[in-house]
Amino acid sequence: MTSALAKIEDFPSDPVEFFKQILQAAAEGHPEGFMQEMNLATVDEEFGVLNRTVLYRGLTADNFVFYITHRYTRNFKNLQANPKACITFYMPDVKDQAGKDTTWQVRLIGATAVELPQDEMDGLWAKENLASQIRGHICPCGEPINYDDLKAKHDKFLQEHSGKSIERPASYTAWQFQPQRWDFLKVGLNEIADRVQYRLQSNGKWESMHIAT
Ligand SMILES: Cc1cc2nc3c(=O)[nH]c(=O)nc-3n(C[C@H](O)[C@H](O)[C@H](O)COP(=O)(O)O)c2cc1C
């Protein structure tokens, strides 16, 4: 049995730069294409708190994490009613500089959701894959469905739109998140994790510090 204390070294003063570095290292083992998911927790009137997995779509021009959804989902309605959210990224196979496997957790704490401007939606819609575009038109998210009915609807939609572009539904939208804190946790096998937390100061600058796990 062995034990060690993980150490996060040489982290940049800007948390977004740090996040980009870790994301890049996480993507390195996946040259065939890399998708990063994130867990989004929102305040829900019925359940108190509600979380789900969503796809990380990148950073906005202002360096805010964003994801895409539809206005008919509960995640959209939750954020509309209460924009406070928390996001967790889990990156289990990131090689450090010495080639050792490490796991990272990155959290956006006290994040405020702000909807992306609608004039950015056409560009994002054009990059969606066909299944996502069809889903946006035929799925009553969260409602009970009959598989055969939905399949018939899907197949009809697919056939009718063969070779044609699919119109962006008005429900299609995206949220960006402005966090109060970024929390980075690093751990390896048989190690006690290290954490670095960035806290937004009232002057708009980030203060960073190691935090006990
Ligand atoms: C890998 C993965 C990626 C997903 N990406 C998204 C996404 O980007 N946007 C989204 O609205 N739902 C996404 N979902 C579906 C959500 O997890 C969730 O089921 C759906 O949004 C309805 O959740 P709600 O009732 O909390 O709104 C994804 C699910 C998985 C498993």
UniProtKB/TrEMBL annotation:
GO biological process: pyridoxine biosynthetic process
Keyword Flavoprotein on entry: yes
InterPro entries: Pyridox_Oxase, Split_barrel_FMN-bd
Entry EC number(s): 1.4.3.5
UniProt keywords, alphabetically: Flavoprotein, FMN, Oxidoreductase
Highest rank taxon of the organism: Eukaryota
Pathway: Cofactor metabolism; pyridoxal 5'-phosphate salvage; pyridoxal 5'-phosphate from pyridoxamine 5'-phosphate: step 1/1; Cofactor metabolism; pyridoxal 5'-phosphate salvage; pyridoxal 5'-phosphate from pyridoxine 5'-phosphate: step 1/1
Major enzyme class: oxidoreductase
Cofactors named for this entry: FMN
Protein name: pyridoxal 5'-phosphate synthase
